[in-house]
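3.2 Worked example (two chains)
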Amino acid sequence: MGTLQVSGLRETVFSVDVTSNSADRTRRVGVRLGELAMAGDVILLVGTLGVGKTCLAQGIAWGLGIDDYAVSPSFVLLREYQGRLPLYHIDFYRLDRIEEVAHLGLDDYLYGSGVCVVEWAEKGLQVLPREHLLIEMERLAPTKRKLSFLPQGPRYVEMLSQLERSAFNS
C-alpha cells in the first residue's frame, strides 16, 4: 500500500491504493466504509464490468447495518435500503449521455440524509457533488483487484485517514 501526499491550499490531500485478493476482502473494506459513513456521504465507484463494484457496495450496506443483500440496480437505476442510515445505491451503467444523468432528479439523494453509492460514476462526474470519495477499481488477476481511493474534500480525507488506520491493515 502506498500513500501519495500532495499539499493543497488548506488541507493535505492524498490517495491510497489497496490490493484485494478476494471478494471477501473487498467486502470487508466496504464494511469498514459503511461503519464510517455519515449522512450526506457520496461514494463514487469506477471500474470495468465485473471488477467488484457491487461487491464493495454490498460491504458498505453491511457496514450500515443493512441485512439485505445489495444487488446491482442496473435495471432500475436506484435501490434504497434502510439501516443505521439510508443507503441509496445508484447505477449509471445503462446511461449513455451526461444529459440522462443530469435529468434523473437525484439531488434529494445526493444531498440528502443518507449515503449514496454510485456505480459507473464516470458517466456522471460532471453533475455529481464536487466533494466525494472516488474509488477506482482495476482487475489485476482473476480474483485480485486494485482499489484506488481518491478523496475530494475534507470529509473524505478524514474518512480515508480512518480507513487507512483500520481496514487496510486487516
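3.2.1 Second chain
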Amino acid sequence: MNKLPPLAAWITAAIVLLGAIPGSGAAQGAVTVPPILPRAADVATIDGMIQAFYNVISGPAGQPREWSRDRTLYIPGVKFVAMSVKDGVPVAQVMSHQQFVEDSDPWMVGQGFFEKEIHRVTRRFGNIAHVFSTYAFRRTADGPVLGRGVNSIELFWDGTRWWIAGAIWDGERPDNAIPAALLQDVPRD
C-alpha cells in the first residue's frame, strides 16, 4: 500500500488541480469541449445544477470528465475565481471555463478526483440565487478526504432554466477554517 504524502503536498496538488497556479495544466486548446444541449434535469432546479456541478468533474483516474455537460451549466463567458494564498497574500486566479478545463483536466483524469458536496446554504430572491456549497475531495470515491473548501456560486433563472453566472472558491487551510455555519448537518435550504 502506498503511503500518502503529507497534507501540505495534497493541498498543493489541490491548488494546482483547481487551477490556482497559472500554467499548471495542459497547453491551451488541448482539451476539446464540443457544444451539447443541456440535460433538463441539470438545469430545471438549483439542486439539479449543484448536483451536476459536482458530478461532471468527479471520476476515477483515466475516465474523461464531462466538460461539454459542464459547459451547459454556465452563461457564455462565465468567469471562475480560484482563491489561494502565496507568501501570506491572497491570490485570485480568474479563469474562463476553457482555462479551468485546460488547467484541471490532466490532473483530474490522470490521478482521479472526486468532489462531493457536504453542506449547502442557499439564499434566493426572485430569479437570483446564491449558493455556498461546502465540499470535500478525494482521489478515489471511497478514499480519504484530502481537503475541503467552499464554492460560492451565483445563479439566475431565465424563465425556462437555471444558469450559473459565476463561481469562486477557496480551500480550507490552517489559517482558513470552514466556519461551523457552513458545516452544520442541517437540511439544505
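3.3 Remarks
The CA atoms of residues 47 and 108 lie 24 Å apart.
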